[in-house]
Model the fold of this input.
Amino acid sequence: MTILKAKVLGFCGGVRRAVQMIETELAERGPLHTLGAIVHNAHVVDALAAKGARMATDLDEVPEHGTVAITAHGAGEDVFAEIERRGLRLVDTTCPIVRRAQETAAHLVEEGFSVVLYGEAEHPEVRGILSWTRGQGMATQSPDVEIPIGERGIALIAQTTKNPTRFAEFAQTIVRRFVGTAPEVRIIDTTCPETGRRYQAAKELADAVDALIVVGSRTSANTRKLAETCRETGIPTHHIESADEIDDRWLEETSRFGVTAGASTPDDVINAVVRRLVDAGAAERNRG
Ligand code: SF4
Done:
């Protein structure tokens, strides 16, 4: 059995930075609350919980004078204001790329644009970015919905984990729809290059293997998109959360596996998957 790993896989810079910031805070100042899951991965959340990082869904769950960490997905302007009002200690792990998308949204609204964010309306990152538009933004994945036109026109930005090609197609449709109606349609690609690099590496990997294994949480938007990209190559693709989910039948059917992983998947989970495949290959050789 041959096992190849994608050239780029697993933790992105933003998630690695967020986890390190939380670990440093835990080591230096003790327990804290994270506002939401620090990353969409149960292994990481459980490991940090064991060191004292509890997850809160609301600021009411954070004790007086406590510490609260904003996740790499960022948060809305109102959340930062409320943390300050309550006098809580803040550990802001917002990924710099998400922060840039928030600032871009805020500047576009200041310039007079209505902001259309290409993304999943319920995703925490999307809700956070929209809050910086102060009511002048909306999130959609369909170019056919009703879109208000700002004084300066419409500005298009994207959820950072979106596929840049899909965003470009979405933008083209909006431009065609509003040409001659809106004063301007401005397009600012706020997708994250880290995500694109994983897609590209997965596509290259698909050329060299018979089946792909995508490792990462099913609640992680970027891992789901990565699995979708892998399926689009036409190569059989299995999305798993951990090594336990590897099905023995796949091992019988395939001799060349490619392994990739979403930006929220830690190294130890990826390594466990590779180890399981290596062991299966060794067992196969022994049988032969
Ligand atoms: S995927 Fe990109 S935007 Fe999201 S946390 Fe990682 S580096 Fe930041």
Residues 12-15, 72, 95, 97-98, 160-161, 192, 194-195, 222, 263 surround iron/sulfur cluster (CB under 6 Å). Residues 97-187 form a domain with the Cobalt-precorrin-4 Transmethylase; domain 1 fold (CATH 3.40.1010.20).
